[in-house]
């Protein structure tokens, strides 16, 4: 199992500072959720992990290796799978072609779609020939997760996977993440605003506000008034 540790990172967009000494530990084979209101730095944290944005200070340690300034494609090849906010599938490519874009960083013998992708999301198998843009929002989210799984990630990073998704598919996504943790031993880091979803599937939670970590603890802490206070609008 693989760990992901974020140690005291700062991140700037030009002169504006977005993250202030953020530290998070995504434990091996666990689901770690980062919660907070809009604009508090959750997505910036994931963009730092995936290498889309460069940190100003601090370090990110993946599988006991400090990532330094490794670009996104190298991090993907190392085993960091990313499901971006808004899904960002290719609307004119078919479902099959979208999944196959996950082959880019794989060696020749690994270029296949894992069978469990279709076990978790059977709708994708029935729609392999349809264009990604013709799928519903929930189906596109399943496709985006499936595409990340094609890369054979050791750590799966998801940015608000329940955003704008119908409840039935939210449950499917929750079951899928629990399967990946329990059966595949995958380390999962997600940012979310949906408290009930996190309470149901997460092992550990972090609460962010104004670019800082305000609370860290087990998911059961979401029931504490002092923790919920940080999530109030």
From TrEMBL:
Keyword Transport: yes
Stretches assigned to the ABC transporter domain: 4-233
GO biological process: L-amino acid transport
InterPro entries: AAA+_ATPase, ABC_transporter-like_ATP-bd, ABC_transptr_urea_ATP-bd_UrtE, BCAA_Transport_ATP-bd_LivF, P-loop_NTPase
Keywords: Amino-acid transport, ATP-binding, Nucleotide-binding, Transport
Keyword Hydrolase: no
GO terms for MF: ATP binding; ATP hydrolysis activity; branched-chain amino acid transmembrane transporter activity
Gene3D superfamilies with a match to the protein in the record: P-loop containing nucleotide triphosphate hydrolases
One Pfam short name: ABC_tran
Record-linked CDD domains: ABC_TM1139_LivF_branched
Similarity annotation: Belongs to the ABC transporter superfamily.
Protein name as catalogued: Urea ABC transporter ATP-binding subunit UrtE
């Amino acid at each position: 199992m693989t760990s992901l540790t974020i140690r005291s990172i700062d991140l700037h967009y030009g002169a504006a500072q977005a993250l202030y000494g953020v530290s998070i530990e995504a434990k091996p084979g666990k689901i770690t959720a980062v919660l907070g209101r809009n604009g508090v730095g959750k997505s910036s944290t994931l963009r730092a992990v995936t290498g889309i944005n460069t940190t100003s200070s601090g370090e990110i340690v993946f599988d006991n290796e400090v990532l330094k300034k490794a670009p996104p494609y190298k991090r993907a090849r190392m085993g960091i799978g990313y499901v971006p906010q808004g899904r960002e599938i290719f609307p004119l490519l078919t479902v099959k072609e979208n999944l196959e874009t996950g082959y880019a960083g794989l060696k020749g013998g690994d270029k296949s779609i894992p069978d469990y992708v279709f076990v978790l999301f059977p709708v994708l198998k029935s729609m392999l020939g349809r264009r990604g843009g013709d799928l519903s929002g929930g189906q596109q989210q399943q496709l985006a997760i499936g595409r990340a799984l094609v890369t054979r990630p050791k750590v799966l990073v998801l940015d608000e996977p329940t955003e704008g998704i119908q409840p039935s598919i939210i449950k499917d996504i929750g079951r899928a993440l629990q399967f990946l943790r329990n059966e595949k031993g995958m380390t999962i880091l997600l940012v979310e605003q949906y408290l009930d979803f996190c309470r149901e599937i997460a092992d550990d939670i972090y609460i962010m506000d104004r670019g800082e970590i305000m609370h860290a603890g087990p998911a059961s802490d979401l029931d504490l008034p002092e923790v919920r206070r940080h999530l109030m609008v």
